[in-house]
Specification:
Number of strands: 10
Number of domains: 1
CATH architecture: 3-Layer(aba) Sandwich
Bound molecules: iron/sulfur cluster
Structural class: alpha/beta
Order of helices and strands: HEHEHHEHEEEHEEHHEE
Largest sheet: 6 strands, parallel
Distance between the termini: 19 Å
Oligomer: single chain
Strand order of the largest sheet: 1-10-7-4-2-3
Radius of gyration: 16 Å
Shape: globular
CATH superfamily: NagB/RpiA/CoA transferase-like
Helix content: 25-40%
CATH class: Alpha Beta
Number of helices: 8
């Protein structure tokens, strides 16, 4: 485990988050499956969860909704109404904060209200020392790569470099959240997995 990961886990725990580290992605999945039990699960847009290959085992268990694999009207609302929500983060601050930037606001809404348990699953590549550097990561690494993946006509996607703070109609950065303490009435689990996952 990297030094920064250790610091992050310790700081998240001090604040009342649940935070764990796993060398093996299958052990992390076991942890999540045990925590969700038989409850419904919604999954937010996440390259991390996609790369980890967790949709199949969750779907096999039942009661799992992910708009990346099924398309119908109202799926985002259904996903967000699930009692358990799995997402990643665009960046994590080792002093104990979660940063996300959304276009639809669905991940930020679900991780902020309604779910009983939220799981933020991250590779160690997402961890920065403090909130300013985590914001820079979210803005200059995660958002441009997401814009490129989504084929957006934004300067960051076309140039594939950094944020240009565009005013494009296709801009994906429309709401930014900085979660500094566990949300009241909700359990938030920050799960770190060894290595680099998603972006
Ligand atoms: S504000 Fe525009 S240029 Fe900057 S990351 Fe978001 S979409 Fe890309």
């Amino acid at each position: 485990m990297q030094q920064l990961t250790q610091e992050a886990i310790s700081n998240f725990r001090k604040k009342g988050f649940f935070s764990e580290f796993f060398e093996d992605k299958n052990d992390a999945l076991k942890y999540v499956l045990n925590e969700v039990g038989s409850s419904g699960v919604g999954i937010g847009g996440s390259m991390t969860i996609h790369e980890l290959g967790w949709f199949e085992p969750l779907k096999k268990r039942g009661k799992t909704i992910w708009h990346w694999f099924e398309k119908y009207d109202g799926i985002l609302e259904e996903e967000n109404a699930a009692p358990c929500y799995i997402t990643s983060a665009n960046a994590i601050s080792a002093d104990g904060a979660i940063i996300n930037i959304d276009a639809n606001g669905n991940r930020i809404a679900a991780a902020g209200f309604g779910a009983k348990k939220v799981f933020v699953v991250c590779g160690e590549n997402k961890i920065e020392r403090d909130i300013p550097s985590a914001l820079l990561r979210a803005k200059n690494i995660a958002a441009p790569m997401n814009a490129k993946r989504l084929n957006r006509k934004t300067p960051c996607a076309i140039k594939a470099d950094k944020c240009h703070n565009c005013n494009s109609p296709e801009r994906i950065c429309r709401i930014t959240s900085i979660t500094t303490f566990p949300i009241t009435r909700m359990q938030t689990h920050i799960i770190f997995i060894a290595g680099s996952w998603g972006y």
